[in-house]
Amino acid sequence: MNSPALLLLPVLLFFRRTAANSAEEIPWTYSGLVGQSDWSQYFPDCGGSSQSPVDVAMAQTKYDPGLSPVTPLGYSQHGNQPFMLHNNGHTAVIELPEWMGLEGLPWLFTAVQLHFHWGNGGSGHGGSEHTIDGRSADAEIHVVHYNSELYPNMSAAVAQRNGLAVLGILIEAGEETNPAFNNIVNYMSRVRHADEITLIPAFDIRSLLPKNLGRYYRYNGSLTTPPCHQSVIWTVFHERLRISKAQLLKMETTLYSSRDGESHRMLLQDNYRATQPLNHRVIFASFSAESGKELSSGEVTAVVIGVMCGCVGLAVIVRFVVKTIRFFKLLHRETVVVNSSSSSWDVLHNNRPAPMPRGKNQEKSEETKQDLALSTTSEAERKAEPSPSPQTEP
Ligand SMILES: *[C@@H]1O[C@H](CO)[C@@H](O)[C@H](O)[C@H]1NC(C)=O
Ligand SMILES: *[C@@H]1O[C@H](CO)[C@@H](O)[C@H](O)[C@H]1NC(C)=O
């Protein structure tokens, strides 16, 4: 990390503090005092009818063929300037440069930050906010953007309808380490306590997104934390990001929601909100239930074998047709040779069949033709009976 970047820190801190509105000063929590059931007393929008997160009941989603893949803009052009990682007491936040954005929605959106929601390291409930068919994932990433076509900045957009677009990426923990995720978890110990900030090397944000950005759920919802403004166009990807169990555990056990030196140390865990009623909202899917079905490895094998058998069958048919045509051409040629009194080579030459379409076959058929010509000529010379079956190829 270079020293100019370090010098910037107090400036960034200053802007962060002045940008914080008074609503953020109310010390809300996930459970306990001002826990999620109390949020709406202090933040009226949290009691609204279009809240997030929600459960995605796949059978109840509506396929919308008009939903094209979302396109991240500049996610991979991270440049050399470090990113700011911040423990805000509720989650770990990475501020994103303003040249990153999102295309593929009705407006252009500009990236603001990304943050995480997780569980408590136990084997009970997962830590994702959105659930699919009632089941949580292990954790969830939210990449927050504001509508930069309609609004000049995040603060102006945050409470407006269609003001924000958030990408939701469900995280599944397994055996394999995700190198991209190390760009974050390896630095979390630098921001153990609430309000701590550090600079981390810039990295490719696209690598935190699933490979397939074409399959997602879309609905109108809200911020999942106070003040819960109902301003978010949600995109929750169907494909999950895989990290290792060790990486998940590190994220779940490194941070505190309490400040440094506070007597009551509180681990920052289970920072996910319960799913909210859909009320009359519809969740749209960018893919149909059928195409959304994952193929099992058995099904994949079946498809591969089927395609191979089909190809072999087709090759056999083509070969049979070609042979039959050659057979009749040969019959015709022999007749000509036998009836001709002039040079049989000339006649054969003029009767050359049209070239075969593909290179290899063409070479082969050329060879065969030569053989045929020779044998026909000698047969013609010997005035043998016209019995053509010189083809011995399988
Ligand atoms: C955001 O835009 C509004 C409206 O133009 C402006 O009043 C406000 O100062 C801007 N806020 C920031 C933090 O730039
Ligand atoms: C969200 O609400 C807008 C109205 O502001 C509506 O046009 C749009 O279709 C809704 N989108 C979804 C995904 O429900």
UniProtKB/TrEMBL annotation:
<dbReference type="GO" id="GO:0004089">
    <property type="term" value="F:carbonate dehydratase activity"/>
</dbReference>
<keyword id="KW-0479">Metal-binding</keyword>
<feature type="compositionally biased region" description="Basic and acidic residues">
    <location>
        <begin position="360"/>
        <end position="370"/>
    </location>
</feature>
<comment type="similarity">
    <text>Belongs to the alpha-carbonic anhydrase family.</text>
</comment>
<keyword id="KW-0812">Transmembrane</keyword>
<dbReference type="InterPro" id="IPR023561">
    <property type="entry name" value="Carbonic_anhydrase_a-class"/>
</dbReference>
<keyword id="KW-1133">Transmembrane helix</keyword>
<keyword id="KW-0862">Zinc</keyword>
<feature type="domain" description="Alpha-carbonic anhydrase">
    <location>
        <begin position="26"/>
        <end position="287"/>
    </location>
</feature>
<keyword id="KW-0325">Glycoprotein</keyword>
<keyword id="KW-0456">Lyase</keyword>
<dbReference type="Pfam" id="PF00194">
    <property type="entry name" value="Carb_anhydrase"/>
</dbReference>
<feature type="signal peptide">
    <location>
        <begin position="1"/>
        <end position="20"/>
    </location>
</feature>
<feature type="region of interest" description="Disordered">
    <location>
        <begin position="342"/>
        <end position="394"/>
    </location>
</feature>
<feature type="transmembrane region" description="Helical">
    <location>
        <begin position="300"/>
        <end position="322"/>
    </location>
</feature>
<dbReference type="GO" id="GO:0005886">
    <property type="term" value="C:plasma membrane"/>
</dbReference>
<dbReference type="InterPro" id="IPR001148">
    <property type="entry name" value="CA_dom"/>
</dbReference>
<dbReference type="InterPro" id="IPR036398">
    <property type="entry name" value="CA_dom_sf"/>
</dbReference>
<protein>
    <recommendedName>
        <fullName>carbonic anhydrase</fullName>
        <ecNumber>4.2.1.1</ecNumber>
    </recommendedName>
</protein>
<dbReference type="GO" id="GO:0008270">
    <property type="term" value="F:zinc ion binding"/>
</dbReference>
<dbReference type="GO" id="GO:0002088">
    <property type="term" value="P:lens development in camera-type eye"/>
</dbReference>
<keyword id="KW-0732">Signal</keyword>
<keyword id="KW-0472">Membrane</keyword>
